[in-house]
Amino acid sequence: MIVNGKNRQSIWYDASGDEVLIIDQTRLPHEFKVLSLVNLESACVAIQSMQVRGAPLIGVTAAYGVYLGLREDPDSLDRVCRALAATRPTAVNLQWALQRCRDRLAGMPLDRRVEQALALAQNIEQEDVAICEAMGEHGADLMEQLWQRKSQDQDHLNILTHCNAGSLATVDWGTAMSVVYKTVQRGVPVHVWVDETRPRNQGAALTCWELGQAAVPHTLIVDNAGGHLMQQGQVDVCVVGSDRTARNGDVCNKIGTYLKALAAYDNGIPFYVALPLSSIDFSLESGLNRIPIEERDSDEVTEVAGIMPDGLPGRVRTAPPGVRTNNPGFDVTPARLVTALITEHGAVKAETEAISALQGAADR
Ligand code: MRU
Known about the structure:
About 40% of the residues lie in helices and about 20% in strands.
């Protein structure tokens, strides 16, 4: 991703200082700040406090966390993996990355583990970039076909997205946003409707920031506006990401995704989910009531974070003191509402047979 004219990733390793560096996403869009993860604890804090977030990026950060933990104590693989696994519950990429680390490192002599853990984390990082690019190209094929049907009657292809499924949610390119960026690169005039995505406003803060950096035309809307815009013919297609998708194609993603999928279905609008195979939980037959849904703090519901009139970050309370709240972080969109899953191996139906056929590729 280009940030202020410079090429950046959301996470990278700097060999000169033996440092793992991240963009602190809790500061965006107000401040661009790079943080160094110095040990296992800081990697855990970064995931838990959402300095890094988004399913693929959580996985890559966990792999680097294993390196940082083993650098402190090469004989601590189990403890390190347990600490990282406890940071966030929903994105399956976290478990996927930790399992890869265990598979590679457990049988290895202690004096080789640290160096191998770093090599593996770097490998997972660079794989993620290639996977996201491939996903973007496959998605762009679909967007181009759609644009061929729409271009007689309108100036832009209007894509609605939810949360941040962009470069910031991965190492680079993103999942849903990779589809957008690759479609733009092919010369299709794209306009993106960005759901603000309460309670943490990843759409407003992060997706708008990165679309702005990439100069992609976009409009921020409140979460409740999407259905109305669909009824008005102002949305051609929805593209979102996923934190965990079950074998039958049920898609778990940021809270509110389900309502957009329902509205898209009711209005005959295609609803695509872009995700790497590492976001598919092949052990889960279906998603509803089976995927652990993160329960988040009450103050995310009763308060809104932003920049205060004095230019400093702050929080404003919008609800009466002491009000009871409920704050599930994710929901499950049933497979029947999903037009197709866009993976690095191409678009597939959100159905058990098609998804199971991908497992071989995932296991390699
Ligand atoms: O709570 P977050 O910000 O980690 O949630 C992120 C999302 O829900 C994304 O849409 C998801 O990770 C899929 S895209 C990479």
